[in-house]
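Job type: complex structure
Entries:
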Amino acid sequence: MSASWANPLSARRSAEAAAADRVVGRAVAAGAPAGWRGLIADWSSDRQAFKVSWGKAMMWIFLLSDTFVFSCFLTGYMTVRTGSAVPWPNASHVFSLNIGGTELPLLLIAIMTFVLITSSGTMAMGVNFAYRRDRVNAATMMILTAGLGETFVGMQAFEWTKLILEGVRPWGNPMGAAQFGSSFFMITGFHGLHVTIGVIYLLTVAVRLLRGRYEKTGNYQIVEIAGLYWHFVDLVWVFIFALFYLW
Amino acid sequence: MDVTQSHEPVHQPVQAPVQEPLAHQQHQQHPIGLYVKVWIALFVLSTMSYLVDYYQFHGLLRWGLIIMLMLIKAGLIVAVFMHMAWERLALACAILLPPLCLLVLVALMAIEADQMLLTHGLFFR
């Protein structure tokens, strides 16, 4: 960062003026900062709390806010489930698949979990390749990750269809407590939306990688930042799997 | 995290072949073997949590196992896949501490849920 950042108003002025401002800035910092200038100086003057690129810091902060969104959904689910006088539907039976006459509990959900974990693994490989500046392999891994993500969304669509055909609605269902439907569609729907956005994000970055957009700067950190988002989607699924499907 | 300590010597950032443009950014490059190990661990842990349901464990054993497996999986993903184990403490604290506020929300809503159950029992008999 250049010194002129210490005082945004000085950015367009000459280097001498900027140097003079720095002296003034130092004097202000030592004494009492005044008014808006003081506020801007205090919040900006060449200080950096996180020793990472701004992109990575902002992705982490976004993921933190998203953590709160998903936590609110899961806490709401906990509240309606505990507060319901009607028995909660048994997820083990609701999400079972009938294969060859045998009832396999939660089979589809287990497969979805493995697919998402695998996609997290391929994403980690992609990040690794990107830092080795092997852009073709990195992009291949990212496209593979996006494919697995899309498979996950496809299986989720199948699951939704199955439940809707069985009469599950946001306002009621034949299996038990009415709040089951609203919790299910809200939580898995929002997670599925995240996976879908992640697929688009990963494909966008992969195409840019292949086109050599990051060759000029040699900075491949965008792959790690996209990876952070993808791993977060997997992370949220770990919690949904445990708290919604297994509980 | 234990992961940090046990693997620390192995994970010295590998020198990049090309000059890193931003000198202050450390490289998050670790051996692929580590990712494969974590990947396998996540598979095993997921299978174990699936088996909790398959064998129909009940009560405290079930909830304890579910929560424990969930937290181990989450920890592995955040620490290794998301590289939090190698980030500086300032970033780790800024990201990992705020969610602890959610425990307050969960506690408050648990009390609220008991109240709801009570009123549901009184009015919808």
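Summary: Chain B has a mean pLDDT of 81. Residues 52 and 61 of chain B are 9 Å apart (CA to CA).
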